[in-house]
Amino acid sequence: MLRPLVASLTTTALLATGCTADRPWPAHPVAVSTQAFAHHAEVRTIDVLPLDLQMWAEPGYGGDLELVRSGAELSIMNVALDAMAKRNYEVGAVIDWNGDYPGGNALSRDDLAATVGSLGRYGAATAEQPGQLPVPFLPARLGSTTGSDATLYVGGWSYVAKKRESTGNQVLQAVVIGLLIISVVAIIAAVTSSKSGKSSGKHSGGGGGGRVSGGRGGLGHGSFTAARGAHHVHRAGAFRRGLSTTTQLVDAFGHAAIDVALSTPDWGEDPELPRSGDEPQMYLEMTLVDNRTGLALWHAHQIFPASAASASETARVARTMLTRLPGRTTQTAGR
After folding, report:
1. b vs e for 43-56, b when ≥16 Cβ sit within 10 Å of the residue's Cβ?
2. Residues 6+ apart with CB under 8 A from 5
3. What's the confidence (pLDDT) of residue 257?
4. Is residue 40 scored above 50 in pLDDT?
5. Structure pTM?
6. How many other β-carbons are positioned within 10 Å of the β-carbon of residue 67?
7. CATH number of 34-164+246-329: 3.40.630, 2.60.120, 3.40.50, 2.40.10?
8. Which helix (H) or strand (E) holds 197?
9. pLDDT averaged over every residue in the chain
């Protein structure tokens, strides 16, 4: 009599594994670094610019977006600082939006805004030149006050959806309900059959009142739609609309071959990014610039099926991004 129930529970356990699978999580970001930095980095101290994260939510989202963004930025920053320490780098100045850090002022507010705005376009430039590190446009010199070797930029965007039960959980719930109904029907049938075999003929058919109907036991999923937004980040046409011609300009390092726009990206205005649907997304890009030359040493970018409202998912995004950051060797770190 218990065999149907055992079989049902076993099937449920097997199906649960498949039904609750998340959307694929990238194993690592798209990343590129200079050969010298990747193999024998001469960078010891790194300044960190304020995190440049734009965020918007699905219509009807009831949470506090400013609170969500603050929490996400804190989580990303903590992971970044920890990752740099584990890779034998020393954190120089953690710069705020005023250009200040505990030791003084690293940049004026205008220079900081211009620098962040320019580096915010760097991911678009690398997308148009795969496998290369374009020359960044840097309106101001970096590290002049702090004395650090390099500066890290972290920016991107996040679409936050209203909290819902996941598709996998909904399907699993339907499967569980259906299997339980089948199990109950089977058990009742077994009990009825057993009683019928032991009873006289006048009792035959007496189990009719114990019938369980499973007709309404399933959950309908016809109205469920998964609105998948852009599963790529860089759309050349969309970005070119916002780029300005800067090839004739010279930046603070004297670079005349400029590949990156001056205008700050407004992710919230990009029509190709998600605006509705229940699947949150987060895009991050990180760029490490050599303070001595003004050239990029390392860059990474990636889009993730993550919600900024989840501290664990946000931290996982940052950890995944930093898996491709080269570390200082023991010999280099000991100098």
Report:
1. bbbbbbbbbbbbbb
2. 183, 186, 187
3. 53
4. yes
5. 0.69
6. 10
7. 3.40.50
8. helix 167-198
9. 75
